[in-house]
Amino acid sequence: MMKEILLNAFDMNCIVHQSPGLWRHPRDRARDYRRLDYWLELARTLERGRFDALFIADVLGVYDVYRGDASEALRGAVQVPVNDPLPLVAAMATVTEHLGFGLTASLSFEHPYPFARRLSTLDHLTDGRVGWNIVTSYLESGARNLGQRQQLDHDQRYDLAEEYLEVCYKLWEGSWEAAAVLREAAANRYADPARVHPIDHRGRYFEVPGIHLCEPSPQRTPVLFQAGASSRGTAFAARHAECVFAAAPSKTVLRKVVEGLRHQAEIAGRAPDALKIFNLHTVIVDDSDALARARHREYLDYVDLDGALTLISGWTGLDMAGFDPRQPLAHVHTNAIQSAVEAFSSADPGRVWTPEEVARWVGIGGYGPLSVGSPESVADELEAWVEETGVDGFNLAYAVTPETFEAVVDLLVPELTRRGRYKSEYRSGSLRQKLFGAGDRLAAPHPGAGYRFETKRERLEVAR
Amino acid sequence: MMKEILLNAFDMNCIVHQSPGLWRHPRDRARDYRRLDYWLELARTLERGRFDALFIADVLGVYDVYRGDASEALRGAVQVPVNDPLPLVAAMATVTEHLGFGLTASLSFEHPYPFARRLSTLDHLTDGRVGWNIVTSYLESGARNLGQRQQLDHDQRYDLAEEYLEVCYKLWEGSWEAAAVLREAAANRYADPARVHPIDHRGRYFEVPGIHLCEPSPQRTPVLFQAGASSRGTAFAARHAECVFAAAPSKTVLRKVVEGLRHQAEIAGRAPDALKIFNLHTVIVDDSDALARARHREYLDYVDLDGALTLISGWTGLDMAGFDPRQPLAHVHTNAIQSAVEAFSSADPGRVWTPEEVARWVGIGGYGPLSVGSPESVADELEAWVEETGVDGFNLAYAVTPETFEAVVDLLVPELTRRGRYKSEYRSGSLRQKLFGAGDRLAAPHPGAGYRFETKRERLEVAR
Description:
Chains A, B: Belongs to the NtaA/SnaA/DszA monooxygenase family. Chains A, B: InterPro entries: Diverse_substr_monoxygenases (IPR051260), Luciferase-like_dom (IPR011251), Luciferase-like_sf (IPR036661), NTA_MOA (IPR016215). Chains A, B: Residues 34-392 form the Luciferase-like domain. Chains A, B: GO terms for molecular function: monooxygenase activity; oxidoreductase activity, acting on paired donors, with incorporation or reduction of molecular oxygen. The structure is a homodimer. Chain A has 16 helices and 13 strands. Chain A is globular. Chain A folds into 2 domains: 6-288 and 369-463, Alpha-Beta Barrel (TIM Barrel), CATH 3.20.20; 305-362, no CATH class. Chain A has helices spanning 36-48, 71-76, 86-93, 112-125, 140-145, 154-174, 231-240, 251-267, 289-300, 305-316, 335-347, 355-362, 375-389, 403-418, 431-436, 453-463, and strands at 6-12, 53-57, 100-106, 130-135, 181-184, 189-191, 201-202, 207-208, 223-226, 243-246, 276-285, 370-373, 393-397. Chain A is an alpha/beta fold. In chain A, β5 and β6 (189-191) form a beta hairpin. In chain A, 41% of the residues lie in helices and 14% in strands. Chains A and B meet through α2, α3, α4, α5 and β6 of A and α2, α3, α4, α5 and β6 of B.
């Protein structure tokens, strides 16, 4: 059986997510991000296209590496202003029945006790359609505003992340037994106190003695997403994530990423296909290849190169203003630049990668690859990505919103469906059930499943 | 001209807010609190009744004083399980145009930098319909789960509260000049970086050097609500709050509270009527007095006395299980009990206030008074409360939800409107504009208005 392709829409509660300058396109509506209608309409469109989920990125800081301050980010609306993604989820759930929602939230911005309650609340209100993109790193400018003089070092961050997840698992999986909620009006008992357990967590970073404040939601633990590129990050993702975001610009690079992740998952005792891997991708599709190419050229006219360099400088931590925009970057000896140049070169070996060329690439959808063409051409390309790399699906960035998503829904989705590469209807159940088909809750050997009160009791009984 | 009466609905994202046991009533729907439809329907009902706002209370902890643990709270669903109120606001905004939303949030649970962004986001999405109930105190059990070994003492709490608000005002009012947002596509400028200012806050509790991440929302600072009963709390409310919640069980007590608050507002340099004061109140209205009384008696059968004592023990910090339920409380020498007994006695001098009697009072809507009768009778009573105490409106608790609110909307609201005591249609504009009629933003002499960048610049120019 052919493998079905999964589709996420990738967005952010701001004007410029990963297409700097395109907000100026006459058909772009990103400026309406402050209005509920804009988001409700997007959610309806994505559900019409049977997207698996809408993923909302987030940063709590500004891109202030390029030219040493946030001026270019503010001028070009590059991920600033940026509003909180959380309130969008419940609003969009009011007009959809199946679409999943992925919320990006950094571990460092909120204590796990109230955070776990926020996610449980969303899982209740959406009837089990919530995912969480676990972010362990963030912009330095965000950390400073939280009174943290400097970020934890890389390894400490992952130690904290492990403990943060442990607290969340204990609250979500271990505090309320399945049988705790009685709702017995006649007996005057809503819950059975004997079956609601304080988690009694005492760790290095957190102390949480009490019970989870929410009764069990459909999925309990939201579907866990992660994007981790470092070796520690990959190991963390392989251990905890159910879905992983990659951003590889070529199949060569992506195949290695996919193989690495599945190998790490096996080391962590999980099945290699327990991970659904999504690569960042931008699709510009139109009725014919020629029309799509014309559309792409039209979009390129709006790319804001300074805006793109603002993003790249923030991502690499290196001020791109320090390089001649038209000189090849090959001679720049930093890991971040070298690996970016190598990755891009594997995608387009003939191109000379100057800052300006990198900016042009990034300007339409970020670091991910771009497919431009008719529905048939783009479907051919996506099939080839899946066949040649083992990836499970795509995290689709937009060039012009909602136009990019509407074109995917109206043109590409029917073509993929016709080929048997895309679901012809949504499966029933929670987001986890839809993605993995095996139930609403985390299952062993995922580490979160080990925190269930029932599992712990079984272990105790076996030990006796 | 007769003073119009303001109405808030008082609710919580949980099963039992302030009517313990009533969730068992056959017509009560509180058990559906986990479903979006339940909240959308409530929002529509309240907007149909032209309620000024829906106020969502919150605690991040459990009531564990009664009998020394949380068992009774869990058994009776007394404010536990309790979900996060924030996601409800954007969802309910999708089906309403005018209704305001008051969100309860404690200063101690989240850093002001991300919190200010959350509120700005809601103010954008609701088009200026958001209020914030500033909570400075909280349940001890909540503090413990955030790793705080004990709460700050009372005065420190207010010092922290002052600084927390200062950070928020700087972010909301002072960071983005009104002229900062350009949205000039042709000139490729979304914002003018020279008009977006880092707040450079360095205080005792917080350091926030950066800019606010959100562009200005309609109200910038949400409408500020507070419920503070201590002298320091009253002074804080008189300085910062635009709306104040009281919970006085008698007119005698309420008149003193209202006079005290308005006097403190004058001391703080504000007009006495710059404060809108809402008293907690429960209304049971039916077509006739007799029918309403029968309905009240029916409700009383469902009151869970242990559930009520659980609430009272949490509020007073005193385990009510230590007292004989049928012995008068008059001899109990603690401030909290004495002032409660005095307050209740002023409402109903003939009654002997035992724990059981207090629980019966609290069991239908909490500490506030109760009006039971025909639309005419209840309207007479509410008018008398306004005339005799100077209060501006009522924070209406429910006995059975949504029945209590539906009866108010269908029976009481038309009667109050007929008497010219209630708006016949919503005013236009933001929540602040609707409540105060003077614009969307905080105005001098409110301290928040002093943080506007433009105000600061004027002061600098005058000083030169």
